Amino acid sequence: MYKSLIKPILFQKNPESAHHFTFSLIKSTFNLPVVKQFVKAQFSFKAPNLEREVFGLKFKNPVGLAAGFDKDAKLIDEMAMLGFGFIEIGTLTPKPQEGNPQPRLFRLPEDEALINRMGFNNGGVKEAVERLKKRKSDVIIGGNIGKNKLTPNENAVDDYLICLEALHPYVDYFVVNVSSPNTPNLRDLQEKEPLKKLLLAVKEANDKKDFPKPILLKIAPDLTDGQLDDIVEIVQETKIAGVIATNTTIDRSKLKTDPSLVASIGAGGVSGKVLAKRSTEVIKYLSQKSNKSFPIIGVGGIITAADAIEKLEAGASLVQVYSGMIYEGPSMIKKIKKGLSSHFRDQ
């Protein structure tokens, strides 16, 4: 139904308008008793061999919703109905911010990809906390945190600590995001010394809590092998829980879309099918270099169960989806879980 009926309507709208329309539609319909029953029946798929325990948390299945879709924690309960094993909110910043000027989200249908330069648009961490207080589902929640655009890098630690403090009672794990290409100079924080300083500060604050939460680092796919070696060293030295590989890419060389059209879009990170190969390479490199000493959440170009299996076999413990769902619809989640369950059963 999605591809034949809903997708053509959504794709007539600009991507950001379609996103807001989808949010409104889900919010207004999913909690109607008949619709709720239908959604749960349509999308539910549970199997014991899908259950995972990773960094001390028990996941009902290894397929999560990546950060960026539900930045402000507006649809936690509704997204849980679609059968995700976990949902990552954010990226959240201490203060609300509008993000970059529109248009800032673009579809590349020929590549089943998106280009975005959203710029951490969100209502601020306090607003998200108020929504998290009211959630009803028991789905695992990750809190993806970042810095405000106007916060200089030398003060970035303060922003991450503010978000950690506010979200701590309401999320199950944290993700330190220093890898978005859409906030000026943010990726400079991926350099060895600034990154180590940031992670140590976040970990120290977390460790002082009565119930510390796992801390993960989200990295870019555009890092060199030398930079990935640094990541392995930093993760092991700071003793954070793991890595999310990867964020969007600034590399456009693999796109099939007319280069002049891509150039006309301007700056932004590319996500979707085109990212699959590189994100898998990064996962495999990190897994081998670290001797599997920390868990990895694989994200980038996952559309089918085969894509998810590829990430898991490369060394990921869990996977996340986002862009693929825009092209395939929510039934993709159940298909991936069924494919994974069959794969694990046949091993």
TrEMBL record:
It catalyses: (S)-dihydroorotate + a quinone = orotate + a quinol. GO terms for molecular function: dihydroorotate dehydrogenase (quinone) activity. The keyword Repeat does not apply. Its EC number is 1.3.5.2. Binds 1 FMN per subunit. Substrate binds at residues 71, 116-120, 177, 182, 247-248. This is Dihydroorotate dehydrogenase (quinone). It comes from Belliella calami. The gene is pyrD.
